[in-house]
Amino acid sequence: MSVLARLGRFRPLLRHRLISLVPISAVILVLPLLFSSAYYYRVAALVFIFAIAAIGLNLLMGFAGQVSLGHAGFMGIGAYAVAIGPIHLGIPPLLSFVLGAILSALIAFVVGRPILRLKGHYLAVATLGFGVLLAIVFTNEANWTGGPDGMTVRQAALLNWPLRGAETWYWTLALSFLIGAALALNLVDSPTGRALRAIHNSEIAARVLGVDVAQKKLMIFVVSAVYASVAGSFFALLNGYITPDVSGFLRSIELVAMVVLGGMGSVTGSLVGATVLVILPQALTSFHDYEHMALGLIVMSVMIFLRGGIVPSLAGVFGGRRS
Amino acid sequence: MAEFLQFLFSGLTVGAIYALVAIGFTLIYNASDVVNFAQGEFVMLGGMTTVFLGYAGVPLPFAAVAAVAVATAVGLALYRFAIETAREANAVTLIIITIGASIFLRGAAEIVFDKRFHSLPQLFGSDPIRIGGATILPQSVVVLAGALIIMVSLWAFIDRTLFGRAVIATSANRVAARLVGIDTRIIVGACFALSAAIGAIAGVLITPITLTSYNAGTLLALKGFAAVMLGGIGSAVGAVVGGILLGLFEAFAAGYVSASYKDAVAFLVILVVLFAMPQGLFGKATIERV
Amino acid sequence: MLGNLKIAAVLGAGLATALAAGPASAQVKIGAVLSASGPASFLGDPEKKTLDIYVEDINAKGGINGQKLQLVVYDDGGDANAARTFATRLVEEDKVVAIVGGTTTGTTMAMIPVFEDAQVPFISLAGAIEIIQPVRKWVFKTPHTDRMACEKIFADLKARKLTTVALISGTDAFGKSMRDQCIDVAPKAGITIATVENYGPGDSDMTPQLTKIKAAAGIQAVVNTGFGQGPAIVTRNYRQLDIPYPLYQSHGVASKQFVDLAGPAANGVRLPAAALLVAEKLPDNDRQKPIAVAYKKTFEAKTGQPVSTFGGHAYDGLMILTEAAKRAGSFDRAKVRDEIERTKDYIGADGIYNMSPTDHLGLDLSAFRMLEIKNGDWTLVPDSGS
Predict the structure, then answer these.
(1) Lowest-confidence pick of A182-186, C100-104, C251-255
(2) Run of H or E residues at C181
(3) Model ipTM value
(4) Total count of domains within chain B
(5) What's the pTM?
(6) How is A152-181 classified by DSSP, letter by letter?
(7) Which residue of chain A has the CA closest to B215?
(8) What is the pLDDT of residues C95-119, one digit of tens each?
(9) Interchain CB contact of A284 with B (< 8 Å)
(10) Among candidates B210, B254, B259 on the partner chain, residue whose Cβ is nearest the Cβ of C204
(11) Do C204 and B206 touch (CB under 8 A)?
(12) Domain residues of chain A, as ranges?
């Protein structure tokens, strides 16, 4: 029996929902061998942070089909929670982290119910307004947030292990990303996930099938908000400094671009989208004054030629299955 | 009373600016269901091109016409190379394409122009008009008039000409339009060109008030988009009303509530309106097919 | 599944190659992280142009300590996160000897930990006082603090017997920081701040805020803290509303272009600014005159744009750095740092610097001159004894 035929016995395993995490984990383990300095670790750390936020947004946009142009607002909540907690309220950083996520979930719950009744572009502008509102609050409430100049963020420690140094962050964030991705993949494959996809396809049909559309949409909105909050908290802790543009309009657009570029409805796609948009500005510096033109051109070209996003389009080419 | 009037005039000034920018979104959306986030860049191009041609010695009226022509060409190029090539793409993909286009255009403006602020002379001089203890600039009236004229022209164009009917047909059902012999590519392309032209005209008219710079387009697109959704996307009247209302909300918030939070207040009001009228003020109720 | 594996592998390889640094070179590298694009590009662009012009100039004259300089510039777009990534890149990958940069306070503060950890001298081009207070071993700055600008304005107000003031500020970092400092400094200077108004840096009409100021009782003067286009619009609106009190702008206005944009409305406006703006009008015995005039002429000739005090900060930063390297005789980071700290009586475009272990800025109030705009041009106001 040929090797390939013998390997065929493993075929059923290949259909497991978490299988896409295996090659990703392999790359994560091997990549540091190529890193020649802390700079690469840092860039990879940023990729993981944005990938986590993108996965959350992808659950909302790619699976449930709801658009959000204000998602960076939740990143801001997580980021400022971890900044304000220790300095102004005396709450230890990790507890602030958790409280930030809870706060984001609560705000998403309260704001989500009315907002999610809107559809399409109207939902987009409502979420946009939400993000802008949060950014304005962060900019103006200087006594808490340090205002437009931002504020320092105290270092966190995981069970007495200080979270500092690009390498530590790389492994911490890689692990967090994998956990987040695994949870998302599980969610997508669950009855809830199928309900979400039904809603994406047609809300009325889903309702006819007995899906509580409003409740499911709200639930996924809350989940995606928590992902963004977690990413935001990590962001603040990694940088040791946070400014209000963490929750700005341009940041929200960046997140949407990551999701769409990578492939809506694909968790791997979120990682790819995050990688592209974090690395491009670094890679394009050699273009000097032309770097923004190059960035715009690349974004347009990818979207024009890889219409469904990078991962789904490439997966189609390689004959693989969408994950 | 004088204070209230001044806030009103300020709101009308800023509102007229938003209205003029917002109209540009309407036509493209009507023809192709695309929200063109590069619309702000067309406004910027109109203003900056006029300014720089002016520096180069071109008399301003000709510079303005040339600027509108340049923007129209860019709009056509955007359609031909980006949107048309990506047909069949879904709405979000198209939005990202227009966002990519706006980044590209801003990047080009960085290099072709410069990074400083520029202005144009006001059309009727800078002596303010005084009414009831408050003042308004003549240019604000020009912008307001411009918005109304364009709105009426657009309405007449869409409703009264054959070309306009073709636009309506294209937006209702593209395939059906093609079946009755309408070349939808020309229609949508023309709408892009027209929107770019409207954007550029807006840029020329508002620059004497707002000043302009290579990245002036971003904030204008943001506010224009909010205005257009408030008014109900797809309606030119809605765009103008939405823009003026947004300006008024901001001015009254700045005057009576808190200037730091005026943008937040304005957005809050938009949200409240949308909860009550999910299609915007003048938006058509959409029928959802199952 | 195979598709995913291939994608992952391709991307991983892509990640590593895309980030591969250029070939190593024996030149001395000086790093800069500037906001040449984005909301702070009004400040960052002249800074970048200045560094480009003068590094080339220094190299044309033979370099420093016999070595040519290579300028490695990154554009952070005003984003603190991007700045920090570039800071790490400069230190780890490009292995620069020192950095001149950090256009805004936010980007500077985000980068400081990187440079302090790596022990690389950093000369910041941002305004806020907390960059150098508390003093950090490796961090210096060249621009005057906004606190000094407030003190200068208040001294002039006092001299004109105007003590009740209204403040109108941009909500951007520059505007807000200076507003806070002015509020803090006012009591000591004998000034009462009666009203405070704000506007967004991208706003096109400030008449609501100015209307409220006009209606407030007892105001004798108005101070506008902000940068970019805001001050020009405020000035125009000010005249549109016929507000009778004197208007003061801030050093954020930075260049002659403000006068052009504000038009006839700018007549009578006063502001504190570096000598650079009025270089040719300085009295001949002014020690700053030769350097200021030289920089102004070079900048204007090479860029075709009016000189900007923000460009002047970059010029001073670069020169202080290279002078320190000359004195140290080497590019050893610790030695260069020590020499920067020992900068004494250095005549720059923006002021005369005297640094010390407790003062990493080195400027005092005399670095600011009070200017008044008359008939579309700057004039020097005789020193009001500050």
Answers:
(1) C251-255
(2) helix C173-189
(3) 0.90
(4) 1
(5) 0.91
(6) E----EETTEE--SHHHHHHHHHHHHHHHH
(7) A292
(8) 999 999 999 999 999 999 999 999 9
(9) no
(10) B210
(11) yes
(12) 35-249
